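Input/output pair, single chain:
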Amino acid sequence: MPKLIPLLFLAVLTGCSQFPGVYQIPVEQGNQLSQTDIDALEIGMTREQVRFLVGTPVLVNRLENDRWIYVRRQSIGDEMTASEKLEIRFADGKVSEITQSQ
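Output:
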């Protein structure tokens, strides 16, 4: 009987983790960029201007330093609810390409 109690307790705990009434917090990760800031980006801006406008990127490719990637993800529990990516490429220290995907 004493060995049965820990197993019963463990079964109850694992059963509660997937209970449908449990509130799961939305988790935001990455850069929180507004569409106004993204629209203000222009070809020809310097790195300093981009950093001032939209902040420091989450990912900078160390092998290809001319590419900055801004990523935002939102998840609730194990489910990904939103994902956005903004990629800025530089040529000669100035913005040469801006790509946004969702």
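The radius of gyration is 22 Å. Residues 4-17 form the longest helix (14 residues).
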